[in-house]
Amino acid sequence: MTTVLLAEDDAAIAEPLSRALTREGYAVTVATDGVAALDRVHAGHVDLLVLDLGLPGMDGLEVCRRVRLHQPDLPVLMLTARTDEVDFVVGLDAGADDYVGKPFRLAELLARVRALLRRLTPEAVEVAGVRMELSGRRVLVDGAEVNLANKEFELLRVLLLRAGQVVTREEILREVWNDPEMKTSKTLDMHMSWLRRKIGGERRIATVRGVGFRFNTD
């Protein structure tokens, strides 16, 4: 699951934003000061940093500069109540990839998050004879193109991007249907059955009973 680190000390902003990001299917960790944010980044497994400029302890500019020393490719979206052009320039010069002024519209901020994360997604993924061309929404199995319905394509995308790992049912339902509460629904199993028929059965997609599914790498 994609992990977003939200570095924001204002609970009135952090709490609704954290809830919105969670609804979008991200795992969210909140840090309320600059030092904690930097420590969390260094601990690893952060895919996107949403960083408030005015953090206590260490401001967002300094956090961003230090992050860039060790993780130059980590996407950073900076938040600030300062909206002068010079502040935007300083933030970008410190290494931020994008900048949103407060107050912001939640829909716009979420769109900026999605845009930054899309940069991390490879154009094509190929594992064990299955190739997905993500931007072209094209799938080839052992060199032959197969036609997948929209949900089948999204299922395969989730599994291929984590090939060799077990992906839980809850994660799949959240990412493909945006509804982790469909735990008792047969919808996932039905679509998984259709997908398997098209790409080679259980030898490619294994069921891990009681947990989820795994795309086999051999």
Automatic annotation (TrEMBL):
Keywords in alphabetical order: DNA-binding, Phosphoprotein, Transcription, Transcription regulation, Two-component regulatory system
Lineage of the organism: Bacteria, Bacillati, Actinomycetota, Actinomycetes, Pseudonocardiales
Top-level taxon of origin: Bacteria
UniProt modified residues of type 4-aspartylphosphate: D52
GO biological process: one example: regulation of DNA-templated transcription
Organism: Pseudonocardia hydrocarbonoxydans
GO CC aspect terms: cytosol; protein-DNA complex
Stretches assigned to the Response regulatory domain: 3-117
DNA-binding region: 122-217
Start and end residues of each OmpR/PhoB-type domain: 122-217
GO MF annotation terms: phosphorelay response regulator activity; transcription cis-regulatory region binding
Protein name, per record: DNA-binding response regulator
InterPro entries listed in its UniProt record: CheY-like_superfamily (IPR011006), OmpR/PhoB-type_DNA-bd (IPR001867), Sig_transdc_resp-reg_receiver (IPR001789), WalR-like (IPR039420), WH-like_DNA-bd_sf (IPR036388)
Pfam families: Response_reg, Trans_reg_C
